[in-house]
Amino acid sequence: MRFMTTPDNAPDASAEPTSVAAQDWAKASVDPQYRAAVVDLLGALAYGELAAFERLAEDAKLAPTLTDKAELAKMASAEFHHFERLRDRLAEIGTEPTEAMEPFVAAYDSFHRQTAPSDWLEGLVKAYVGDSIASDFYREVASRLDADTRGLVLAVLDDTGHASFAVEKVRAAIDADPRVGGRLALWARRLMGEALSQSQRVVAERDALSTMLVGGVADGFDLAEVGKMFTRITEAHTKRMAALGLAA
Amino acid sequence: MRFMTTPDNAPDASAEPTSVAAQDWAKASVDPQYRAAVVDLLGALAYGELAAFERLAEDAKLAPTLTDKAELAKMASAEFHHFERLRDRLAEIGTEPTEAMEPFVAAYDSFHRQTAPSDWLEGLVKAYVGDSIASDFYREVASRLDADTRGLVLAVLDDTGHASFAVEKVRAAIDADPRVGGRLALWARRLMGEALSQSQRVVAERDALSTMLVGGVADGFDLAEVGKMFTRITEAHTKRMAALGLAA
């Protein structure tokens, strides 16, 4: 397992954010609030992977060639295997996976409904953006987790990055017709805006999860810290889009 | 590897159908017609799996619960892995997988377009019927293949049967409302009719493949034998539907 370094601009250690990291699940889960937060986290990630599977498989229909179709199908299948691992872990810790996922269904479904790609390139950008944001989020959250849960999250993270093929295709399309870049830049902004809006909805509704995300304590969390995390993820997104030739 | 018994009503051995079975790929593929037939077969199976992946993933959207959705997604993912194995084998024997699949795209796409399920139960019946027909076909063809190709086909076959969960669900729905049985019986007939019609199109267009399917020789094949194979597969389908409570 790789060791994850804490981001430079991590929140203050006032709420002892590293104490849980030194514990295993058996010890950390004695705290009911921590337990609830992890169930929320795994439920949110699991449904996110299942929803991603479904959308990538659907977007594969837009592929111009069989090879492209197979690439997107491969990503979809990888997301499904992430889903399986997260779901199995939920069952292992004695939670009904469906119940853990239910609270997050509306947010993901809204996101995907609002961001159905209208062509293959939009589908590729969405696959790449989604994959990257998921990686960033896994990294942010890993350092706040007990050793067992962190192991799972990092294992799933290690297995992402299937979207790199998308980068090459998008670059080639922009080279061939620079106007495509402008359209896709708007699209990438819309994706990020919709992702943030759905995330904020989840944060507002799921106290235990939000508290853990910012390394908070049981009696409340600092909304400003959640905002900072979103800012870091948005900045990373903006840099990636610029590198891709899409001014965000 | 399991040993596959030859069906009781297998075609006559007039065209030495077992001679290839005793050979490995290196030896058998010296015959250009046999080679072309295997490339066709693997191409047809590969695109069939990729198309099945796509449709099952899409049909997962009709699932009434997250558990059901996950079950169909699991089948879809299994089909994708079959696709990968078949595609990799095509590359291994020096064929461009896309080229091998292309001749079969129209038939599969037409089949799926004509048989888009309108609800979850139709989706389940389609998953079960599709999985079963695929197994029957793999079994029919296995005995006519060289040892290496047979090994691959049997390995993919061993890994099917994900649709058994569908049986339970369909039974329960018919128990709850017997009228559902009548509707689904019509649907199953339509599925089989459409599958046969597309298969016959393929048989008419792909001589080398068709010749091999009936254990024929290089200078032609017996159309009656193809018909017998279709009849065996249709009969097995009818029995399965009856067992499921669907009078075909």
UniProtKB/TrEMBL annotation, chains A, B:
Q: Give residue ranges for domain Ferritin-like.
A: 32-216
Q: Which InterPro entries match?
A: Ferritin-like (IPR012347), Ferritin-like_SF (IPR009078), Ferritin_actino (IPR059125)
Reading the lineage from the top rank, the first entry is Bacteria
Q: What is this protein called?
A: tRNA 2-methylthio-N6-isopentenyl adenosine(37) hydroxylase MiaE-like protein
Q: Which organism is it from?
A: Streptomyces colonosanans
